[in-house]
Design a protein that fits this description.
This protein is mainly α. The chain contains eleven helices and no strands.
């Protein structure tokens, strides 16, 4: 979820420490504490870009942030301030072109539907309410007295484990980044990357980016975004060609295999710590769900 920026806004203080790079959507995670050190608990699924480390990503940051906001609202209301936290769909589902851990997906089917745009929000009403809340808090006229009260409430309601859970999630994300770096060095990935670039260069006259993740090129990206929330026919045509080139060159499959192998190695090397991280994250999630159940407004 994107938050409006307002310099060092008070609202931004709330989410400090609760945001991680990829934890943007809910995911299903097994709660078993005992797992084989040699067999990933996630099944291979290139279409969803499922990876072995995904099992240790328990919940989105939105849940912890929402629970904290609800408690902040009660605290500030008692002090005479208006901090009306809206109802939220706590599934926190991402658009259909994202997977369970918030990774943006891209293939021919997605390109045909949405080009390089995101799919529609799965719960627009919940998103609308949250956006209005963010706007209201970011425009809140605060002074020294309010800031003091705000900080006091934040100290009271913030669960000390929230920062720990966030740090642990960042640790898992760091391992995923390591796996990506390793995967990109593999000969099969590097060779197929050349094939992807040639495939697109044979069809289009623009300078093809060095890697598929940089598609579309900045000038085209700006042009496509100007069309609003719906992809133009030109964008869809290019996106489909791009996706087909990723497949025909073998790049998508090679990268998936290389990332899977790299993550499997990292899971085996760090299994004990990762199991502890998941166990603690599951316990924290249950506590946050209880907070939401006791304090959230009706839809």
């Amino acid at each position: 979820m994107a938050y409006a920026k307002r310099g060092s806004s008070l609202f931004s203080l709330i989410v400090l420490g609760l945001t991680t790079a990829l934890l943007l959507s809910s995911c299903s995670t097994p709660e078993s504490e005992n797992s084989s050190a040699s067999t990933p608990q996630i099944e291979k699924n290139q279409q969803q870009w499922a990876m072995p480390l995904d099992e240790f990503i328990v919940d989105p940051t939105e849940l912890g942030n929402y629970a904290e906001q609800l408690l902040m609202g009660k605290c500030l209301t008692k002090l005479g301030y208006q901090w009306d936290v809206p109802w939220q769909n706590i599934e926190f589902r991402s658009p259909a072109n994202y997977n369970g851990i918030g990774l943006r997906l891209f293939d021919v089917e997605i390109a045909q539907k949405w080009g390089y745009h995101d799919a529609p929000k799965p719960d627009p009403e919940s998103a609308r309410r949250w956006e209005e809340f963010v706007d209201s808090t970011n425009s809140y006229e605060s002074g020294p007295t309010f800031e003091k009260k705000f900080s006091s409430c934040l100290r009271k309601v913030r669960d000390p484990r929230s920062l720990q859970v966030s740090d642990q999630a960042n640790y898992v994300m760091g391992l995923k980044s390591q796996a990506i770096d390793v995967a990109n060095t593999k000969p099969a990935v590097r060779e197929s990357l050349k094939g992807w670039r040639k495939c697109l260069a044979d069809q289009y006259s623009f300078a093809v980016p060095a890697i598929p993740q940089d598609m579309p090129p900045k000038p085209l990206d700006k042009k496509f975004k100007s069309s609003g929330s719906v992809a133009s026919a030109e964008e869809i045509e290019l996106a489909v060609a791009d996706a087909k080139c990723r497949d025909s060159s073998g790049w998508a499959a090679a990268l998936y295999r290389a990332e899977w192998d790299a993550e499997t190695t990292l899971v085996n090397e760090n299994r004990d710590k990762l199991d502890r991280i998941r166990t603690e994250a599951v316990a924290f999630r249950k506590k946050m769900l209880a907070v939401v159940a006791a304090n959230a407004p009706q839809p």
